[in-house]
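Q: Make up one entry.
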Amino acid sequence: MIHNRINWIDWAKALCIFLMVCGHSRPFPQFHDFLYLFHMPVFFIITGILYKPKNIKKLIISLIIPTLIWNMINYPWYLSGIIGHKPITFENLLSRPILGLIIHDFNIGIPICGAFWFVLVIFILRLIYPIIHKIRIIHIAFIIFCLFTAFKSNQAPENGILFLPQRAIIAYPFFLFGIYIKKHQTILSKINRWEISLLLCSFIILILFSYYLGTFDLYSCNLNYFPLYYCIGIIGFIFIYTLSNKLSSRYGNPSFIQNISNGTLVILGLHIIVFSLLNKLINNTDFPGKGELFSIITMIILYYPIILITKYTPIFIGKSKALKQ
């Protein structure tokens, strides 16, 4: 059953959060273009697969409170960055960071922990779906609106006052596709019959597409060849699903994969700080493979904090009590 722990989902979340860290580490351009094709769409699809109705209180506990906590944890780091570089004003110290929690317009607010835009978009998606999906004609109209918004948003400004709702609208079809998979488990069973073939084919398609046609980036609304944005996202899901399913079949669900899966919010909240510290250690020296190496080191450094946070302060990851493996 979907509501129980599923091995391939833990592997998929672990793989995707690692790819997210890599994407923020300035990796090789070819690797960057490859992973940006699909790692965020796959996260939204998995969010749909794991969807269970929650009241607003539980949504706030699981998504909003961790966002606030990790922004507060990053606040001293933010202060250290503005001292000596920007005027010490009320605006820079408080008002812009507070506004940055909900508005990704850098003329208005400064997102202290910018990676949490993804979490806030999920919050919006989970608010939208229960309201509109019950009336079929309204739901269909909204899906068309989502596709139209994606079409019109291609190459839109990277930041703006409507940043979060715009990204949520564009991501909604992926979220809905995940819910569809949850309701129709035979889809995954059919994929399993051709697992190796689909794994290889999806990987080749992603490699060729990124090499010849470039990449996508939901954050900056760079949707490139728009009609293919959703198609490539689904192909990326097939790639991650078949790879994760193969790994889970071979290695099971080891505790370190479960811990990484549980600790995605910890990684979102701390990876940029770890990058900065690692850069200071080497005096910001650049070398080939630096981004990929830093990503691996960052995952290793954050592993035990994840275990401690999961056990002693689960509210940091949106849980009211410690997780049991």
Summary: Residues 56-82 form the longest helix (27 residues). The chain has 14 helices and no strands.
